[in-house]
């Protein structure tokens, strides 16, 4: 099994399927410089989800990019993905760690809460995610977070991921506030040229 180092910073592209061209657009995002890819599919189609996650894992291996599975520890284990992303309804870090092992990447949603981030870091999360920072086309009712939270969380010693309504135009304010990763769905995958869209985010960070 190929394991891929988790990068220090960059574009964290999150897929927006289900869509028939998933592999093609994921490939374009990676060609454009995405440094982490998350498979996010909120359907219950277990068979398709497994097949797509396997295909994305193979694609990510070619690019030496870690694949993170949203919500689903079992799917992450079954596909040999680099890790899992957990929100408040998705189980805790210890349970995921017990299944996925010490070297897996476990990310945790902390919404607008420093306290959630402190607890996640203490529980062994590999990164903490905050947001939404801007109105999100994907999650219009997401709680809103302030860039001050990114600054405050520098003390936690884990990478900070920003999510929610991020575009190439508003992203620099989050990079300035300390976001190590920009997690983006629509401003990458809803764009007509996915590769070019990814490049605009990738260029906001220096090479790793
Ligand atoms: C990197 C990253 N950050 C936040 C989320 C949101 O997770 P969650 O709150 O569990 O919501 P869903 O994405 O599951 O709808 C994420 N997926 N990735
Ligand atoms: C999953 C999630 N959690 C908070 S906002 C969001 C959606 C981000 O998508 P977009 O980049 O399209 O705003
Ligand atoms: Mg979730």
TrEMBL record:
E.C. designation(s): 2.5.1.3
GO MF, one example: thiamine-phosphate diphosphorylase activity
Superkingdom of the source species: Bacteria
Keywords linked to the UniProt accession: Magnesium, Metal-binding, Thiamine biosynthesis, Transferase
Binding site for 4-amino-2-methyl-5-(diphosphooxymethyl)pyrimidine: 38-42, 70, 109, 139
Residues at which Mg(2+) binds: 71, 90
Recorded metabolic or biological pathway in which this protein acts: Cofactor biosynthesis; thiamine diphosphate biosynthesis; thiamine phosphate from 4-amino-2-methyl-5-diphosphomethylpyrimidine and 4-methyl-5-(2-phosphoethyl)-thiazole: step 1/1
InterPro entries: Aldolase_TIM (IPR013785), ThiamineP_synth_sf (IPR036206), ThiamineP_synth_TenI (IPR022998), TMP_synthase (IPR034291)
Cofactors that this protein relies on: Mg(2+)
Keyword Metal-binding: yes
Enzyme class at the top of the EC tree: transferase
Cofactor: record remark: Binds 1 Mg(2+) ion per subunit.
Domain Thiamine phosphate synthase/TenI residues, every copy: 11-188
Catalytic activity: 2-[(2R,5Z)-2-carboxy-4-methylthiazol-5(2H)-ylidene]ethyl phosphate + 4-amino-2-methyl-5-(diphosphooxymethyl)pyrimidine + 2 H(+) = thiamine phosphate + CO2 + diphosphate; 2-(2-carboxy-4-methylthiazol-5-yl)ethyl phosphate + 4-amino-2-methyl-5-(diphosphooxymethyl)pyrimidine + 2 H(+) = thiamine phosphate + CO2 + diphosphate; 4-methyl-5-(2-phosphooxyethyl)-thiazole + 4-amino-2-methyl-5-(diphosphooxymethyl)pyrimidine + H(+) = thiamine phosphate + diphosphate
Residues noted as binding 2-[(2R,5Z)-2-carboxy-4-methylthiazol-5(2H)-ylidene]ethyl phosphate in the record, renumbered to the chain: 136-138, 165, 185-186
Family: Belongs to the thiamine-phosphate synthase family.
Record NCBIfam families: thiE (TIGR00693)
Functional summary from the UniProt entry: Condenses 4-methyl-5-(beta-hydroxyethyl)thiazole monophosphate (THZ-P) and 2-methyl-4-amino-5-hydroxymethyl pyrimidine pyrophosphate (HMP-PP) to form thiamine monophosphate (TMP).
Protein name: Thiamine-phosphate synthase
Organism name: Rhodanobacter hydrolyticus
